[in-house]
Amino acid sequence: MSSFSPNLNHDAGIRFPKDACVVIVRTEWNAAIIDILESGCTTVLKQNGVSYKIIHVPGAFEIGFAIKQYWEKNKENPTEKPAAFIALGCVLRGDTPHFDFVCKAVTDNIAQLNITLPVPSIFGVLTVDNQQQADDRTTGKHGNKGAEAAVTALKMISFNLNLDKK
Question: Most buried of the four, 2, 85, 96, 127, by CB within 10 Å?
Answer without folding.
Answer: 85
